[in-house]
Amino acid sequence: MIKALAAKAANEQLESLEYEESIGANDVLVSVEVCGVCHSDIHLADGDWGEVFPLVPGHEVIGAVKQFGENVTGFEIGQRVGVGWQCDSCNECEYCKGGKETFCLKNQPTCMGHHGGFADEVIANERFVIPVPDALDSAEAAPLLCGGVTVYTPIDMYAKLGDHVAVVGIARNRVMREIGSEK
């Protein structure tokens, strides 16, 4: 039984929710250590992007592999991993075959039509489970699974070698913390 916090209606406080989910042949069950809060989670919980309740938000997940399906390779029980905005795709379209799964018309967001990381466990297809180095602090690494991927995709799609690219806002919290500590 997976235990979670869920929005059961728009603009309501999160409440306890328990549910069962099965692990598919290509899935990884991740025991959640931390899950960041993104403004997208707030939009979803407020019903701004449609009524998808009950909703278990969370797509900035860091945790450890707890179990995996029989077709999964490359992961070990206890391995530190992350799960971001997307947890599955069709794996058949031109985008999936070209490594651009974020553009798949059948992509599955982690917390929209699927239970997200505000839970003790989350399930994702192995292609969307990312090894996380032990040297990274979990709370600082979790937002990279949303903001980092969000920034990376357009750079990967549109920037060419030698282009100058400005990224504004990614280090804001750390910079604000460092500025604040100087006072």
- How big a fraction of the residues is strand? 15-25%
The level 1 CATH classification is Alpha Beta
Distance between the termini: 47 Å
What letter string, H or E per element, gives the SSE order? Answer: EEEHEEEHEEEHHH
At the fourth CATH level, what is the homologous superfamily? Answer: Medium-chain alcohol dehydrogenases, catalytic domain
The number of helical elements comes to 5
For the biggest sheet, the summary is: 5 strands, antiparallel
Helix content, binned percent? 10-25%
Radius of gyration: 17 Å
Give a written overview of the molecule.
The protein has 183 residues and is α+β, with helices and mostly antiparallel strands. It has one domain (2-182): Quinone Oxidoreductase, Chain A, domain 1, CATH 3.90.180.10. The chain contains five helices and nine strands. It has helices at residues 39-45, 94-97, 138-141, 147-158, 172-182; strands at 2-6, 15-19, 27-35, 61-68, 80-83, 86-88, 108-109, 121-125, 129-131. A five-stranded antiparallel β-sheet has the order 8-3-4-5-9. Strands 1-2 form a two-stranded antiparallel sheet. The chain has a two-stranded antiparallel sheet with strand order 6-7. A hairpin with an 8-residue loop joins strand 1 (2-6) and strand 2 (15-19). 32% of the residues are buried. Residues 172-183 have low confidence and may be disordered.
